[in-house]
CubicO group peptidase (Beta-lactamase class C family)
Amino acid sequence: MKTPVKFLAAVLLVSSFSFGQDITKKIDSIVKDSYQKNPGIGISIGFINNGEEYYTAYGNLDEKSNVQIDENSIFEIASITKILTSNLMAQAIIEKKIKADDYIDGFLPKQYVLNENLKNKIKISDLASHQSGLPDIDFGKLIQLDPQQPVNSVTEKTLAELVNNCTELKDYGKYRYSTVGFTLLGQILEKVYGKSYDQIIRSKIINPLKMKNTLTTDFNVKNQTVGHNPEGGIQEFFKWNVTAPAGLVKSNASDMVKYLKAVLNEQSSVGKAALITEKIFYKDEKRELGLGINIVTDDQNTLYMKSGDSMGQSSIICYNRAKKWGIIILLNQRNSKLRQNMLNTICDTVLK
């Protein structure tokens, strides 16, 4: 006896729905367990699976508030900003305004005068894959000067002096995490497009994707979470300045899921650019890097991810292009161990 096509379609739909429900229930259980073990930390999670969105959150905006965190609550995404900057750079590559293997010399603002030893040495891709060898900002010293706003001391002038005074690249071609690298990428984008980084990210990512709660220069909003340092003390959100392309965007789970949806859509401008960032530009025995993104591969899965830590918040974004899922985890305390443990548990017990 033949099974009616409509019946088969209905069975498949119910099966798919049940499978989706099962995944979201398991994710919620993991997040709830993490919150119960860390009740002082607010958590917001966004998950996308084959275009279907799911959100869960625990905790309040701050200890004195009864307002619960949800998918619209604002967090610092910190260094997740770097994948946005890399995507912008990849869009510029697609538009033939720049190439990944171009040397940075002709694209830097005029205040930069590279030492002879550095000329025609550093590529755009070197900046975006943390192997330029340039000196980086000394956050330890900056934190001592201003524990709440350490990047306030970083200006266009101090950055130019840091780069111009460099006579030898340290470990060029080897991985060394770099805030300066992505700050320079932002300035290169500004020169390429003749606009501010704020204008560029708005015109090419925030506005087209309708990410209405992704904030740059102005983030004084009612649904902003209160950040906490590892000891539980209140920590201010970083103010917008020249280092913005490396880590100063603020957003929420809902908007970052919109970004993930665009990334997984290979027909969108963001998705086409993401494919470029996912190419391997650096590899050693410990890691593989694309442009601004970490690549983690095993026998069955390839994951693309980027973590972020400000002084008072932690976050991580991860997606599997082949299986069409992505996840964003946001915490209102700097706690890289907790966010990584949650991601590992979700990946290992649910998504794989």
